[in-house]
Fold this sequence. Notes:
Elements: H1 2-13, H2 20-33, H3 37-50, H4 57-70, H5 74-82
Helix pairs in contact: 1-2, 2-3, 2-4, 3-4, 4-5
Amino acid sequence: AKAAESFSGFIRKFPSDPLVPNAYYWLGESYYARGDYVRAIDQFRKGYEAAPTGQKAADNLLKLGMSLSNVKRSKEACVVLSQVSS
């Protein structure tokens, strides 16, 4: 929970920082690790949208797909996971 607070604070304080996509990823991971897949989905999506060709793009897509699968959104998960390799 403290990690989530820190990453959220970083994103709010420095919205244009090039590390924001990474912060979204780690914020998503903090939710994923606690089983809060709905919140994780939102963060991984934001991380990917912030930098679709960035360092964490594939990681965000992978975990987005895994999170979607965990909430039984299998069709969406398959679409997202098919984009990971590209």
